[in-house]
């Protein structure tokens, strides 16, 4: 479908004797409104709770949680600024909110998305240092350093989203150009195509590979630490008890029994913890890619005329589903990073109950790895939330 087809499509609407603004397909609108509504309520509540609990309770103030607060803030920007405009647009075939809103809403959407992906990438790098290089993390991964990185991320997001202001236009349509659409600049195909490839690389390809690489190294380090912990625990216990048993035969029998007990206990605990951590890390990367890849790839295919600009039938439903998935990512982030953590769950309950007392058991709610340094004498406790 070329540009003339778009204008003809618009003219057909407004040549009709029935006002197109009064015709709505409620069978299509209701599911979309429900998803946007759930995203708005869940995202607003979850992200506000993350920010509130992080800075309300001193024990919750950590480097990772500061990054999560920045992530929650970027998601709130998308939820508060963009979802209401998206919902209003569902009830009109044209754009009636002016050129400023047309450009600004898409700009803020990309600012939020870029900020979110850069924050997710920063979290993966922070966790990599905390687990793989814990001694360096003691000086690199500090709260003050995290705040500086967050400031840089937001400034970069405002800058990197600027091309959207150029490619998004307020397009006149209709017989006498009396109506407007808020669309990409179809007439300047080169800029449009560059913009979509640019967003695909910036939001998906680059960060996805960095996060995959970081979390792969983290998982590998966790397995190595678990093996070292199992060996050192067994050797320590056997040496201690062997020295306390004078009879050689009794000592041999005791050692065999204790070895079996230690192997079973360590095997169960370590396997469970490793599976839990790996599951969370894989979920983080996978859901990010699942939510954003379809929309970004669809935009590229549309820019290169592989798919039509205007969607009818199944393509229309597909496009709507891709947009909903991308927006829904803003409300599942609190679930992934917040509700999977016992410490966050406890803090959420306290916040919702308007309580200022946090349980003293907070420290025990995190899974802690005792990293054995290569020098053999230095250790550092690293939390995985």
From TrEMBL:
Which GO terms fall under molecular function for this chain's record? neuropeptide Y receptor activity
Give the top-rank taxon of the lineage listed in the UniProt record for this protein.
Eukaryota
Q: How does it sit in the membrane?
A: Multi-pass membrane protein
Q: Which residues cross the membrane?
A: 33-55, 67-87, 107-129, 149-169, 197-223, 277-297, 317-340
UniProt KW keywords? G-protein coupled receptor, Membrane, Receptor, Transducer, Transmembrane, Transmembrane helix
Query: PROSITE patterns this protein is in?
Result: G_PROTEIN_RECEP_F1_1, G_PROTEIN_RECEP_F1_2
* Cited Gene3D superfamilies: Rhodopsin 7-helix transmembrane proteins
G-protein coupled receptors family 1 profile domain residues:
46-337
Query: Looking at the keywords, is DNA repair present?
Result: no
Tell me, in one coarse class, where this protein mainly resides.
Answer: membrane
- What would be one Gene Ontology cellular-component term for the protein? plasma membrane
List where in the cell it is found.
Membrane
Q: Give the protein family.
A: Belongs to the G-protein coupled receptor 1 family.
> What name goes with this protein?
G-protein coupled receptors family 1 profile domain-containing protein
């Amino acid at each position: 479908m070329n540009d003339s087809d778009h204008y003809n499509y618009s003219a057909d609407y407004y040549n009709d004797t029935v006002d197109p603004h009064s015709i709505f397909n409620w069978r299509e609108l209701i599911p979309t409104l429900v998803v946007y509504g759930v995203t708005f309520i869940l995202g607003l509540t979850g992200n506000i709770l993350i920010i509130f609990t992080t800075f309300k309770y001193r024990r919750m103030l950590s480097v990772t949680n500061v990054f999560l607060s920045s992530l929650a803030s970027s998601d709130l920007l998308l939820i508060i600024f963009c979802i209401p405009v998206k919902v209003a647009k569902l009830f009109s075939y044209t754009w009636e909110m002016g050129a400023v809103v047309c450009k600004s809403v898409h700009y803020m959407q990309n600012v939020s998305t870029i900020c979110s992906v850069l924050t997710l990438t920063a979290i993966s790098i922070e966790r990599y240092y905390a687990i793989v290089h814990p001694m360096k993390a003691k000086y690199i991964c500090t709260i003050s350093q995290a705040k500086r990185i967050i400031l840089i991320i937001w400034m970069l997001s405002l800058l990197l989203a600027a091309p959207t202001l150029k490619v998004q236009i307020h397009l006149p349509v209709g017989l006498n150009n009396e109506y407007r659409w808020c669309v990409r600049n179809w007439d300047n195909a080169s800029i449009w195509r560059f913009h979509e490839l640019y967003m695909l690389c910036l939001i998906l390809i680059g960060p996805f590979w960095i996060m995959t690489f970081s979390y792969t190294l983290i998982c590998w380090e966790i397995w190595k630490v678990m093996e070292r912990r199992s060996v050192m625990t067994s050797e320590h216990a056997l040496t201690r008890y062997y020295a306390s048993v004078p009879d050689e035969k009794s000592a041999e029998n005791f050692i065999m029994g204790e070895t079996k007990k230690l192997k079973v206990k360590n095997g169960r605990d370590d396997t469970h913890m490793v599976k839990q951590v790996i599951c969370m890390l894989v979920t983080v990367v996978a859901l990010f890619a699942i939510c954003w890849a379809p929309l970004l790839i669809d935009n590229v295919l549309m820019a290169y005329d592989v798919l039509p600009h205007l969607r009818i039938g199944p393509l229309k439903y597909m496009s709507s589903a891709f947009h909903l998935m991308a927006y829904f990512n803003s409300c599942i982030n609190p679930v992934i990073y917040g509700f999977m953590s016992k410490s966050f769950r406890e803090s959420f309950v306290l916040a919702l109950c308007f309580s200022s007392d946090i349980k003293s058991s907070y420290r025990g709610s995190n899974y802690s790895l005792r990293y054995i340094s290569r020098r053999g004498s230095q250790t550092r406790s690293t939390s995985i939330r």
